[in-house]
Amino acid sequence: LKSNPSNNEEKEAQTQLTKSDELQRLHSQALSAYQQEDYEAAISLLDEILAVCVWDAELRELRAECYIKEGEPSKAISDLKAAAKLKSDNTEAFYKISRIYYQLGDHELSLSEVRECLKLDQDHKQCFSLYKQVKKLNKQIESAEEFIREGRYEDAISKYDSVMKTEPEVPVYATRAKERICHCLSKNQQATEAIKVCSEVLQLEPTNVNALKDRAEAYLLEDLYEE
């Protein structure tokens, strides 16, 4: 403006200055809402800012944190993936994405993302610790599924027992393991045990189709046709 004043440019510059002042005000409000744990309000304010500042990685990371607190992990993943692209060497974003996938029970995607973190920094303590855990769990699940394909149901049950010991903190893995144990027991014609384990799964997930089918097979073995 100072170097080349003209009415047209002055008007444009004043508009941009007004907009930037407004965005700074929204930013302060968003941070304040986040600190007060009003995550819904923070998301709404960050939506407005990010509509203009599309390439701001830190704002996306902040909105991802809000989404996590609000129980919307898939939206958090979307923001964190953008942040990982926008900021080079963003190990923190890859770590968070991997953690979310892990908590959701998607161990394969979790492993893939934590490897991206270690590509950037092989000495990253959090990523390496998570990598060891996910890799161990992933290997056990793959091994158990291989046993099922081979009809080695006792071995598969034993392996899924190990899965539950490896990850006792995240409930989704115990539920999935029990669902597969229920399947193995039913296939192995251990009807009484199958009915018990399948029922445990169905208490947690009443509409679990696999557990319903496997329990039905077990009931057939026991001639319990009504059930």
Provide structural commentary.
- Residues 8-21 have a biased composition (Basic and acidic residues).
- The protein is mainly alpha-helical and 227 residues long.
- It has a domain at 151-226: Tetratricopeptide repeat domain (Serine Threonine Protein Phosphatase 5, Tetratricopeptide repeat, Alpha Horseshoe), CATH 1.25.40.10.
- The chain is built from 11 helices and no strands.
- It has helices at residues 7-35, 39-52, 57-69, 73-86, 91-104, 107-120, 125-149, 153-166, 171-187, 191-204, 209-221.
- The longest helix is centred in the first third of the chain and has 29 residues, at 7-35.
- It is elongated.
- The N and C termini lie far apart (81 Å).
- The relative contact order is 0.05.
Shape category: elongated
- In the CATH scheme, the class of the domain at 151-226 would be Mainly Alpha
β-strand percent reads under 5%
Mean pLDDT: 95
Q: What is the third-level CATH name, the topology of the domain at 151-226?
A: Serine Threonine Protein Phosphatase 5, Tetratricopeptide repeat
